[in-house]
């Protein structure tokens, strides 16, 4: 039977004007690894005969277990869904539910360069990967992050900053033209591993460009359930 973890919000961080991180208490037996996602649900989602799907969202966890909080980072625009409009009213101490937690994008330690390609708040998926890499860099040559956000609401700039000592580089761009120009340059590394997070349209555009530049399907890692990956990578 599926286990539902009810937990409380212990802090809300305004990352930018539209992006918030909700830090949740860790239930005793709740565990996860870098790159994990979870089903994040609001009160009332399971009170009827069937679950109210409008009160559930698939969210990445933007923290590591060592940080002692479960981080959910999301953009809440002025005009938003029912789910986001309710979540915007939530405060410290209110309860939310988590279930079906899994990681599709853990770090692959294969002595290769890793490229993290993301759009907007998709960077939240990569925050724990970067922290895990900093904590334990073995098996990874170098990590390069490239993020595009047309609103210039760049996330986690204190963490995502280049460091030759840590063998880490970070780029932020504010338009797709510059972004895809940079992706094409990165694809010159024919042995690299390319992680991609964003909308389905964003994934397909990146995959097309990477494949046109000689990157093989097994070098592209998507934050999708393995049964859905072929939809994107099969040509």
UniProtKB/TrEMBL annotation:
InterPro entries associated with the record: FNR_nucleotide-bd (IPR039261), Riboflavin_synthase-like_b-brl (IPR017938)
Domain of life: Bacteria
Protein name: Oxidoreductase
Lineage, opening ranks: Bacteria, Bacillati, Bacillota, Bacilli, Bacillales
């Amino acid at each position: 039977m599926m286990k539902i973890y009810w937990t409380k919000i212990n802090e809300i961080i305004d990352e930018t004007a539209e992006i918030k991180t909700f830090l949740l208490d860790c239930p005793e037996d709740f565990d996860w690894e870098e790159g994990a996602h979870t089903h994040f649900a609001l009160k009332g989602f399971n009170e009827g005969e069937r679950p109210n799907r409008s009160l559930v969202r698939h969210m990445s966890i933007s923290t590591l277990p060592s940080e002692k909080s479960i981080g959910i980072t999301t953009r809440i625009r002025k005009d938003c869904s029912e789910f986001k409009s309710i979540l915007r009213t939530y405060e410290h101490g209110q309860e939310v539910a988590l279930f079906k937690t899994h990681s599709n994008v853990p770090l692959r330690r294969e002595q290769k360069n890793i490229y993290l390609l993301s759009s907007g708040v998709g960077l939240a998926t990569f925050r724990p990967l970067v922290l895990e890499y900093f904590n334990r860099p073995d098996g990874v040559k170098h990590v390069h992050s490239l993020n595009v956000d047309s609103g210039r609401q760049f996330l986690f700039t204190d963490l995502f900053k280049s460091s030759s000592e840590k063998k880490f580089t970070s780029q932020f761009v504010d338009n797709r033209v510059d972004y895809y120009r940079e992706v094409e340059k990165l694809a010159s590394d024919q042995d690299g591993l390319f992680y991609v997070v964003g909308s389905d349209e964003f994934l397909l555009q990146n995959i097309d460009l990477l494949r046109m530049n000689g990157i093989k399907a097994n070098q592209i890692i998507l934050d999708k359930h393995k049964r859905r990956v072929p939809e994107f990578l099969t040509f």
